[in-house]
Amino acid sequence: MGYLSASNIEKRIIKSVYNPRIVSSFKNNFILFPHESTFYYAYCRHALKNALLILNIKAGDTVLLPAFICKDILSSIHSMSAIPSFYHVNESLEMLEEPENLPNAKAIIAVNFFGFPQNLDKFKKYCSLSNAYLIEDNAHGFLSKDSKNEFLGKRGDVGLYSIRKTLAIPNGAALLINSNKIKINPDIVNKINENTQTNNFKFKNMLRKFVNYSGIWHIIFLLFIIRTLRKFKTGDIYPKSSAQDEYNLPNEKKAHHLLFYYLKHLIEDEEIKRRRELYSFVEKILIGCPCNPVFPFLPENTAPYLYPFYAEAKDIKFIRKVLSGYHLECFPWPDLPSEIENNCPKYYKNVWGVRFLW
Question: What gap in Å lies between CA 280 and CA 257, rounded to an integer?
């Protein structure tokens, strides 16, 4: 296929990947997290660990989660000496098994993959059968709502958010307690260390500031060098997790102060619009490419984390070339758990995503 000529509006959309401007100097009235039932952390893994603590998950208890998941989430479960057990998903990323055929568990995790609302019917049926807690993993779906206009992350007993995956901040995650039946021990959720801004984020932030003056060429050039060096060193341009990431939880820290500034000053409508415009643009430029979208359409209330698609490994080089013509890139998702990676449906390894935030 040939390249489409990007309009000025589309060039602005592409530039927003590298320097999104979705905060105001004025405080806004964005309210998602009730003060008394929300706790903030550096990473979503910390939020999940504390969710398990609050739900009184003990050593030997089973936690159900999708087999199609990043391996590092297991570190939260292993940190509690709990036992992860997997259910499978179909190509629409919905639960494959029937609830009555799943093993007994103390909690089950439902994931809103890529910010798209997960159908919770099977999960709620399972919870009614087994008396399990429902944990809604909304790491990808900050700002997304379901067809009933309800924010994702508010539909289970607890909700998890990885806000750093949506906003350009060093780190930031949240744990939201949705059930008034859950007793919260403040001593459990507040014993965490102070946080500092990493040199890596400071450098990225400095590069972002140049985007408005010199465009994005300096970032593209830097990424090319980094990818080349990584491929020379590891054989792959993409970073990989290690087996130890399934067990080693990072040192727990408070969320960076920039998270709270962004939450107070966020222009949520602008960020939702930006992500939806990027999704539509990527969908357009991939027409004719050997790939298929994971989801048949973009729901009205969805603020997508990225543009997810299915593609064979042999076709990715061509697709990457098409995307690079618009200064966009794709990467594989997820880095599967070691128990799953060699024993899973083929489509688990054929999911790629075009990122909307550098």
Answer: 33
